[in-house]
What we know:
By secondary structure, the protein is mostly helical.
Amino acid sequence: MSVSPQSLEAGVPVGPTAGVGIGAKAATGAKFALFLLFAINLLNFFDRQLLGSLGEPIRKEFLLSDTALGFLGSVFIWMYAIVGLPMGHLSDKWHRTKLIAIGTTVWSLLTAATGMAQNFAQLFVARLGVGLGEATCAPAGQSLIGDFFPPNKRAFAMGVFMLGLPGGLFLAYAASGIIYAHLGWRAAFYIACVPGLLLALLALLMREPLRGGLDPGRVVTKPSGSLIAPYLAVLRLPTMWWIILSGIFHNFNMYALGSFNSAFLQRFHGMSVRDASVASSFAVGAVGAIGLIVGGWLADRMSIKRRNARLVLSAWCMSIAAPCIFFAVNQPKGSITPYILLMAMGTVTMYVYYSTVYTAIQDVIEPRLRGTAVAIYFCCMYIFGASMGPVGTGILSDHFAHKAMLDAGATTMTEAFRAIGLHNAMYAIPALALAAAAVLFAASRTMDKDVRKQELAHHA
């Protein structure tokens, strides 16, 4: 079902399915849209992860420090976060399908440009461009899912959408190792461009669903003429502040792992580029699909009886992830199998976050502000969390490596000292996982009150 821009702005009916109960069916074209959004999201994470999976050969070719390598990941995130704010607001006012098509085209072309870079400055500019394009995906994509699927099916649908995260990481790690071995690291960035351009065309075939059409008891409010009003409306809810803080801690960890897990396996455990990429593709990639699907299914079941069940489930899962990751990092050199198994257990439970917390945002926020809410969340958690993951871990790694060099009485930095530095830096990840768990428990305490407050305001 398509809808004109004028009807998108209307503050009146929410469509023929308004007022339906928990047995509501998905909107027309929902399955096709979900599959396509999943594929686009998979490519989103595939393209951004290539730099992390091929970080070691890139670092050595351009003679970069860990801080500089981490900074390349961070500049992408800063651009993504800043541009995401206006993109989120635009997705609440304009055609979300067209926005995704344009963004996918931009980031695919700039991914190819990354492979053409001849120096650090060109790498820097190319990664900025990738962040610019990818900023359209999350706000518009999650907003579409909120209108394609009713509340009782939304967490599972969000889990399928977010399968693009572990799927993209898995493919990036697995494919990059093979491509690097045969064609060099630049070819991986060229190859990634082609499917992006194809998916951009397919995105134009998606229907634009009615906003709020599957949310019983809610109306689509008429947007205020003030540019800042939508952002203030979202930030008045305490639950959003807790969710944002949880995202800061959680995504610091995810981007730290994405940037340095493969490097850690190579330096500390002595694995080759290809073997480390394959191991990482499973340990911090493919196994995440279990957490997304099982977590989404369980969250939908639990939320029938408890409105805050999604956040409670995520908090408990994060509490389990922390010790798993701690003991993984604590394994001695050469203990590759225990490391992979423990890290995989931590990854499975951490990935529950995406199908639960991202859906909780859809539950808390009224339909007309969902794109804005997702953009605010992404902006904050990316600037203060995800962007700090690569560069923060890089700074810690360089610090501990320098300390190890001084403690040994040496004057030259070696790969052995770099291995010690990165190993010590990795302990920050389980500590922040525990912090995220505590914040998610706090969010679960305020969610019910925030939702009721909005519902009462609409019925007043």
